[in-house]
Amino acid sequence: MTIDLSPRHKLTTTAYNGQVPGPLLRFKENQPVTIDVFNRTDRPEVVHWHGLFSPPDVDGAMEEGTLPIAPKSRARYTLTPRPSGFRWYHTHTMAMNDFTRAQYGGQHGFLMIDPRQNPAPYDQEFFLALHDWQGYLLASDDGAMNPGYAVTTINGKAMGSGEALRVKQGQRILLHVLNSSPTEVHWIALSGHSFRVMALDGNPVPTQRTVPMLRLAPAERVCALVEMDNPGVWVLGEVRKHVQALGMAIAVEYEKKKGNPEWQQPTALTWNYEQFAHAHSPDSSAESPILIPLVFESTFQGHGAMEKWTINGASYPNARVAPLIHGRRYRLQFINNSVDDHPLHLHRHSFELRRLGASLGAAQGIAPDDIRGIIKDVVLVDSQTRTEVEFTANNPGASLFHCHQQNHMDLGFMMLFDYA
User: Is-contact 308 298, C-beta < 8 A?
Assistant: First the structure.
């Protein structure tokens, strides 16, 4: 289909049910559903149900064993949605240098799994997807090539091209924000207001915090309450001026207020995961986890080429670790030797953040204190740092682990965890 991102930006892409983002799918936790997917394109497709504990054959990754949907055919996915929370669905195909395909093409949609009880009262809720479009190769200082973008959007529209979010004074607004970008981290602020962070990647945080902005790596989600207590017409958008100028902003309009949306520029980029952890780390009597070190490096492929990526010295499908033992606890040690930041995603499981962002040059290479209680399925690991997460191997079957940057995944940054 052809979509208008703005009056100056029109493109042809593949979409779900004729819209970008795709339709909101809203299910109840633990109530089985069946979804029919019709592939009306001329190439194989697959839909990944990101954040769900689905069996490998319906999770939506061909690497795990989900069958591709052949051109002009249909697939039927039957699954029991769990856990509750804000998830999403998207294509899980390769793009390489074709910036019209896979996640570059904007094939994504919202997926909400409602719990038995609503965790927070609110008056309105909005689902917002941040995306970067019309990619092109951009040379970095070291000669390698990385994607750049011509336009950025919220819900498929650049600033001024879509409908405003309309609110009333005194309302509590619940924002479900997804970064569906193929490669880019984004910082989001709402002028004149703050965010009360309720959940990360759909999972309630142990400690709610009020923050001036949200940071989302590719595939991350944040659910935040906003008190509508400052009447006017405001801009909700990317904090960095050059990115917002490409379109990533939307107006928030109070009832009976008109005029040009107002933007108040923050002075700094501020965000950290640790602030949402337990205030006091609870004692843990569980058995010691099995350690799995994972070292990430890139191999320069020459000027004008994208880099090849390895995990423990090997690229997919050759990157391997010992099979998981059902019921055992594991600690993944993400050791990022590269100069890039990586949003890392584990399929079919959630993990608990334990140690974050220790410089590889620090004593012993790790942070001195554990954090507890933050459950996610994507974590951003900064360049030249080490981050550690824990998970329980409680969902048998092949489980894909990868960097959620499309270009890194395409060039080898993937690995399968198998169960014994």
Answer: yes
Amino acid letter, 157: K
Residue 72 sits in which domain range? 2-114
Find residue 102's DSSP bridge partners. Answer: none
Measure the CA–CA gap between 168 and 256, rounded to whole angstroms. Answer: 9
The DSSP string of 185-233 is -EEEEETT--EEEEEETTEEEEEEEEES-EEE-TT-EEEEEEE--S-SE
Cα–Cα distance between 235 and 306 in angstroms, integer? 36
- pLDDT recorded at residue 304: 57
Task: Indicate which CATH number applies to the domain containing 194.
Answer: 2.60.40.420
- Residue 118 tokens, joined: 């609503």
pTM across the whole model = 0.96
Q: Looking at 249, 276, 303, which one is the last position of a domain?
A: 276
State phi, psi for 104 to the nearest 5 degrees.
-60, -35
Least confident interval from 29-38, 66-75, 81-90, 367-376? 367-376
Query: What pLDDT score was predicted for residue 402?
Result: 98
User: Do 299 and 412 sit in the same domain of this protein?
Assistant: yes
Per the listing, tokens 């740092």 go with 385
| Alpha-carbon gap, residue 134 to 393, rounded angstroms | 39
157 token code pair: 């529209």
How high is the pLDDT of residue 364? 46
Cα 218 from Cα 131, distance rounded (Å): 9
CA–CA dist 214, 212 (Å, integer): 7
What SS3 state is found at 264?
Answer: coil
Out of 276, 299, 328, a domain closes at: 276
Please give the structure tokens belonging to residue 108.
Answer: 């994504």
Say yes or no to pLDDT of 353 above 50. yes
CA angle centred on 341, ends 335 and 347, rounded to 5°? 70
CA distance 212 to 230: 15
Residue 127 and residue 178 in contact, taking contact as beta carbons nearer than 8 Å: yes
